[in-house]
Design a protein that fits this description.
Helix content: 40-55%
Oligomer: single chain
Strand content: 5-15%
Strand order of the largest sheet: 1-4
Low-confidence stretches: none
């Protein structure tokens, strides 16, 4: 998996995590070590989803 700082795109923490956890036998990371370090230090963005609200609504309105 290439890990670089590249103009508008850089490897993200989530992308690297996905590659590492889905690798079956091995994973080869190549590129810029500084880009990998930066990706692992980056903060995860706050997810703004309606999941909790939707689940609560379903639980509160579902017939028992």
């Amino acid at each position: 998996m290439p890990v670089f700082f590249n103009g508008g795109f850089r490897s993200s923490r989530n992308l690297i995590y996905t590659a590492v956890t889905r690798a079956k036998k091995s994973l080869l990371l190549f590129g810029d070590v500084r880009a990998l370090e930066a990706a692992t230090r980056e903060e995860e963005p706050v997810r703004r989803t309606k999941l909790v609200r939707t689940v609560r609504r379903q639980v509160l309105t579902s017939p028992e």
